[in-house]
Amino acid sequence: MKLDARKLKILQAIINDYIITAEPVGSRTVAKKYDLGVSSATIRNEMSDLEEMGYLEQPHTSAGRVPSDKGYRLYVDKLMKVRSLNDQEAEYIKELYKTKIMQLEQVIFNTAKVLSEITNYTSVALAPQLSKVTIRHIQLVPIDKEFALLVVVTSSGILKDTVIRVPDGIDGDFLNKVSNILNDKYRGKTFSEIDLKEVSKIKEVFARNQKFFNSLVDVLTHSLRAVQDKEVYLGGTANIFKLPEFQDIFKARSFLSLLEEKDLLYDVLASSQDDGVKVSIGAENHYDEFKECSIVTATYSLGDRVLGAIGIIGPTRMEYSRAVAVMDHMGKALSSYLTKLYG
Amino acid sequence: MKLDARKLKILQAIINDYIITAEPVGSRTVAKKYDLGVSSATIRNEMSDLEEMGYLEQPHTSAGRVPSDKGYRLYVDKLMKVRSLNDQEAEYIKELYKTKIMQLEQVIFNTAKVLSEITNYTSVALAPQLSKVTIRHIQLVPIDKEFALLVVVTSSGILKDTVIRVPDGIDGDFLNKVSNILNDKYRGKTFSEIDLKEVSKIKEVFARNQKFFNSLVDVLTHSLRAVQDKEVYLGGTANIFKLPEFQDIFKARSFLSLLEEKDLLYDVLASSQDDGVKVSIGAENHYDEFKECSIVTATYSLGDRVLGAIGIIGPTRMEYSRAVAVMDHMGKALSSYLTKLYG
DNA sequence: GTTAGCACTCTCCTTTATTGAGTGCTAAAA
DNA sequence: TTTTAGCACTCAATAAAGGAGAGTGCTAAC
User: Fold this and answer.
1) Which residues in chain B are contacts of A153 at CB distance < 8 A?
2) Cβ contact (<8 Å) for B141 and A153?
3) What domains can you pick out in chain B, each with its CATH number?
4) B199-237 residue pLDDT tens
5) Which residues of chain B have a CB within 8 Å of the CB of A159?
6) pLDDT tens across A294-342, in order?
7) B42 touches strand C (CB under 7 A)
8) Cα–Cα distance for residue pair B309/B326, rounded to 1 Å
9) What does the angle CA A175 – CA A181 – CA A183 come to, to the nearest 5 degrees?
10) Is B241's CB within 8 Å of A252's CB?
């Protein structure tokens, strides 16, 4: 069977309608609302063909048709026209990145927030992945008698800092000495290659202050853990309730629990690390839990190095054209902001 | 009418039962399940009295009784026995505070998380309120050629740090000079008293580097904003769906939207700044939105200075005895952790 | 003061129609 | 050969009706 122009038109009409109404679309609706110049009976026949070809599905015998994942895929790849953002939205995003000083985490968090506000879907954002990044500089900075700061500058300019307590009798010179040793040893390595206990040199220096050494080990292991913590930020989790497909309390609940599984979200986002916007529709998602959702992701980078990804999660009945437009814009805006600031 | 011992016993029985079953409790249930030695008819009469006195309510004529806010209040104040935590729970909390090094925000965040896991309610935690705290030390620390760190140590030992970029040609000496000026000017002041633009001295120093000055102003204003940001951490937002009273999608949704109103949560938590555990039942809450919820809060402190509050939000049909026990324990554990670490 | 008994109320659940949107098929029209 | 009109049929959703069950309040006896 051939997928001729009329079939495509009908498919597009059905998808458009379904995205708006969330109700199965019948032949009569298509005939009336979309001016295709043929009768409902003809459309009925075509719809039957489209179902046979796998682009449409029927919830039950006497209902209209609903697009299948395959149908959406065709729509996303060939049929839809990606609109660009309207002025208001673009302005809103611009506003977000106007403040020049933000902690990196804050930037990502706010990005997720705005993303969910603009799209009305749930948004996710992956924190920059330190595991991909090497250490450029480590410095222990004395703050006052009690505290010092452990600062790690990475190859992508991202900073990680942690406050640590220092015991009495440790002065700036000592901290400098330790900093130098750490630098010698770890510059150019990744976070996961840090293994403090191996450094015999450090042990020597710390011989007279074993407690501080232990504390330092704690800090560094913790930094390490933070890297593996797979930090994921969420936005607009309550948005899901606006959608008719999640009026069922059971679905809504399982969706929300899903969002609390950070590891899962991490995997989903991390899997889309090629540059640009990516759309995963329903069962295309590797995880069963998302088989009724679509996920649109975009990467963000610092310079030409991909740092992480942002995304939105909605029902397969998603406004793809808008979603793709927003993600594309947002990914680029975030990248350019980061590059300007830390690049 | 007098609230004699038998009435109290019956009230307690009803509340206990209702907390477990979430179903209106009838006279026959009380007679059968709780051995009070009287018939259901007698209990019926007593329940009628208790309703007249305002401790019970009837959803409709032919249903059992449900405790009123006033009933719960009596229960919390007089009737319930506060159990202490079981070993497992205590162990779990201990585990949480075993790691010695955490960013303060991380500590609070994790506390909220554990709180929701243990209680199965939604938890909230107020970040330490910097507005209550004075500045002890300000230091600009050079990291490398591009970056410096602005570190603020407060009177309670809490640190606030922000990475800033420094323009070329600014060296450590210069940063030190600026640090000293800032210290002279702001030591002992609160965050809200910072008004950089007033410092003529600083302007002089910066005369030759206006851009950096502006950037510094940005950073400090931003720190300021962060203080007013009213940071609130949430845990277990999906827990609400486990409760029968939130099976109604409409209620669940409005509850979740409520949780996104950080300002509101902030007010609720900030209002309970006296030391110790506080229980707000239903309409006792200042905000209408929470009139079907109960909130149990506890403060946490550093040394003897109250820094913030943590709390759990559930239905008025809450396991008060457990909730109070957990909050009491948790508040103390968090305080002692903070005090040990930063005190 | 307590209890048994009974009429009464109100929700919840199940069963039964009824409606309406939509399909698939057939036969006629283009 | 393609399109269309017509019609029987299907199925979900909604409404109406009829118990069943849990619980109360009242009365009269213990």
Assistant:
1) 143-144, 147
2) no
3) 5-79 (1.10.10.10), 87-127+230-342 (3.30.450.40), 131-226 (3.30.390.60)
4) 667 777 777 677 777 777 776 666 655 555 678 899 998
5) 143, 147, 163
6) 999 999 988 887 888 999 999 999 999 999 999 999 999 999 998 887 6
7) yes
8) 14
9) 100
10) yes
